[in-house]
Design goal:
This protein is an alpha/beta fold. 25% of the residues lie in helices and 25% in strands. A hairpin with a 3-residue loop joins β4 (129-135) and β5.
Amino acid sequence: MSFLTPLFLMGALAIAGPIIFHLVRRTTNDRFTFSSLLFLQPTPPKLTRRSRIEHWLLLLLRCLVLGLLAVGFARPFINDATRGGADGNLARQRIILLDVSASMQRDGAWTQARQKVEKLLADARPTDQFALYTFDQQAKALITFEQWRQAQDAERKAVATQRLADTKPGWRSTHLGNALATATEALEEEVARSELKRSAIDREIIVVTDLQEGAKLDGLQGMQWPEGVKVEVEPLNLGKRSNAGIQLVAEGEEAAASAREQTVRVRVSNATDARKEQFQVGWATADGVQLSGLPVNVHVPAGQSRVVTVPRSVENAQAEKILLTGDDEAFDNTVHVVRQEPDRAVVMYLGDEQPTDTKQLLYYVQRGLQTTRSLAMEVASRSSANFPTAAELGGARLIIVGQSLTTGQNAELRRMVEDGKMVLVALKDVNMATSLANLLNLPNLPAEERSGSRHALLGQVDFTHPLFVPFADPRFSDFTRIYFWKHRQVDLSGVTGAKVLARFDDESPALFSVPVGKGQVFVLTSGWHPADSQLALSSKFVPLVYSFLEQAGTVASRQAQFAVGDEVPLPAEVTSTAQIILPDGEKLALGDRKQLAGTELPGIYGVQDNGKNWRFAVNLPTEESRTAPLPVEELERLGIPVHSSILVSAQQIEARQEKLKHAELENRQKLWRWLVVAALAVLLMETWLAARLTRPAQTVAA
């Protein structure tokens, strides 16, 4: 038998206490005063020269209680081969998690990591089962347990070492939580496959990482950690090196707009363990390795960040890379900025109206559709006498009809809808119902004018339709504050495929859609001008118009800034013949993909399609710049049994592994619980015996 904490055996010295108490003779405390003895002198009882123990059994029971508690606190375990002790007879399963995130690009980090993994593989015993995984945002298997078993004993280490040699760190972020979850699943699957009991398997996850602050631990909180699975963290010793990182302050369209302007704002963040605080920021030269022009000096204390405005000059007017200098690590000192012009979108309005007439529909359309940083809006107006050409209609993203059209004009417009265009018709009067029926290729469309002293309200709105999804949140879903003074009641019984998206409180359709070929026709049975409703004056009008544009494929966000590992949505108009140009110059065929998931390199990407070129920037994840060591206590706080040490010698490795085996063996046996139960049982016996021995003698009546 061995003890995990043998120092607690010194508690057995407390056994001397009961022995001393039994040897000490004390005068009884029970005194009774009798009147007949008042005039006698008190005489103390005579004691023998040598104290003697009177109640041996009581003494033994008390000593046994203290002895059992001392042995229990020492945490004993049976260390022999038959019970699976620490002699190496346990089946060992090891998963090595190797960090390949962007922070491993630091000088010396990858070399140290490879050496540690090679050392672990070299020390593997023939009976061991190993698996090797790499991880950044996701974990990826290099060698699974199945592949390790199938390989010959002499080939296992060589195959694993060769696959390790073909691996190098990437530029993605660190998600340690995902990696640990994947490793535990692999261990559980292996236990389920094996015929051995869990108590007969020594399972361990060995994490080789720089363990930096930016590592994500999502998913570990609340996770039920498998019993018997230990985690060993092998941190890297990179010395005391200062690191600062740089990121764009704005994202999305703000970043694209700032790239076109004369200044760009960036954030410089300094690690919490940094020793340097003075840095320089500026545009890069054509070769991308030096600062161009006059740099901006910035002072950033350790653990803090500063926002810096980087101005453009004539010599760097076309530059697309900003550099940070002054720290010891260069992997996160570059940020790429794309100079991209806003997308142009044309909305064609068909109606005989003046743009300055505040009583008509066109006035509010022009003011509602304003140019943004990513979208240059243009509202073109044409009357029935100056009907647009097929090319003009084809170039419009959305067509709004605000008047009756001729039969020929409706036929031309219908061909555009069949080819995929979207048309919004605002029924300003009942007479437009005839033109709408012509557009929908219907014999007639019954419509009735509804107006009166009582206003109408939107009583039902289909928030599941993509048009109204932006309003589904309870904060924005209240349409009852919009009054409609006039509207047209349309009979849709003869319209095939018509779908009502909104109804008035009198159950008549307020907004409905009709599919026509590849496109759709949306019909609003009331106008948004003041004579018909308050819609144009409400806070819902502008978002609703942009929602129509989004349904027409117009305002799909063309974000120009992404992080490595992000899935990049491609513009809807990009065809399958497009080519993707990677930062290293390699070209990939787009094919049927609707998004690009292979952003593995930071830099400028391009999408070329029929003479058009869409460019976007991919930069390092911001959290990878937080390179200060993450305290191991953070993992322990999440309930993970972590052991962390820097291996120095083979003797230390063996001693550490022996100690871990003993702890695992004692945790499985838990002999201390039986010792505590035995101590309680003995204590009950001692209490009963002490009460019996101290019970006063019964006086027998004469």
